[in-house]
Amino acid sequence: MHYDVAVVGAGVAGSCAAFAAAKRGLSVVLLEKEALPRYKLCGGAVTRKTMELLAGEGIRLPAKLFHEVRKVRVKIPGAEREIDIAEGDILTTYRDVLDYALAKEADRAGAEVRDATRVKGVKRGRGGYLIKTECGDVSAKFVIGCDGVSSVVRKYLFGWRFPPGEVGVAAEYEVPGLSLDAMEIHFGHASFSYTWAFPKAEGATIGVAELASRLKESIVSRLESFASTLPYVDPSALPPAKAHLIPMGGIRRKVASPRALLAGDAAGFVDPLSGEGTYYAALSGIKAAQFVNEAFNGKEENLLAYQSFCDRELLPELRAMLYLGRLFYFNLDFSYHLFKNSDVLLSVISALGKGEPKPREILRRAIIYSLRSLPGYLASRVGLLR
Ligand SMILES: Cc1cc2nc3c(=O)[nH]c(=O)nc-3n(C[C@H](O)[C@H](O)[C@H](O)COP(=O)(O)OP(=O)(O)OC[C@H]3O[C@@H](n4cnc5c(N)ncnc54)[C@H](O)[C@@H]3O)c2cc1C
Q1: H helix or E strand, kind and range, residue 14
Q2: Is CATH 3.90.1580.10 what the domain over 2-67+88-162+249-314 is classified as, yes or no?
């Protein structure tokens, strides 16, 4: 069967792309390798801007899918601070449940959702692409690759992969029945990332991430040693850990060709400081569908304008967070000094939840604040040396 667009992968990016393309009248097939609902390793934190984006596109999600976070607790070695979160700024969810609801929305918009259909390869054919799946071939004029960090579409049509310095390795325990009064973020257990304990509706998710190029031991042993520091965790009662890769955004990559696009993790669109990927997956998926629709209706000759959009709108935000991360992890002693003596880190967390100010403004303020604080920090360290 021939479709206007084939979307590969029914995660957040894929179901949003399929919904947005079908809503605009295109014939859409959404190809997912797993049977839905499928498990997806994720902290499941969803910010206000994501919910606003989905609602603005017309995607309806029941409130019962989400758990409200009203407090974030940040811990560094020797200190701890808390910040109150406004209602709706930060929610958590289970990704199997969220992604299934999104796939049903794509179906409601008119997309044909085919789960348990792994894509094995993609090649250019007459009038578009031939997509080889475990359940037969599919042809489509356009392809949107939303098949995650190890994307098959990217491999066959774009030919690049993430080098170890541009991808994180993460592991989590999904602990049913564990009740937490706050979302916890811990520093000091990873060299270029944080560790976390996120409250969810029916338990909590405990996780760790580290840049692949800096990982000297197994990520699961890193997770085990982090979990053993948590007073509310019984290590003998933990479920098996699961691990997954997480791309680092903020680096320019090829995400558009004349008739094929990449979105979400397949394109590397993840905030490299917070690890927030669902917002960028939803945004890039919806935008990819809009560009496909314009190309289909002859307003654009091809899909290359999507690359310009990503370079102009997404890359600067993600790059600002990359630089903010480098600033933070460059000298943890200085960063911890700022944390103890100011609200600067807590205000970054609050801004991520609210979606305001934008990352570039957050980075600008953080640089100014760091420069202003440097003399006091150096004086305190010289005082320590005497
Ligand atoms: C441990 C961890 C914690 C995280 N925590 C958070 C968080 O709290 N908040 C947040 O915003 N982000 C978080 N992220 C990032 C977030 O999970 C991702 O950025 C997001 O899932 C990207 O969505 P996606 O749709 O692009 O890809 P995915 O969710 O990975 O979906 C890709 C889909 O493609 C399918 N697929 C793959 N290959 C094929 C194939 N060959 N054929 C057909 N289908 C295929 C997969 O089965 C999958 O369903 C976390 C990531 C990790 C690893």
Answers
A1: helix 12-23
A2: no
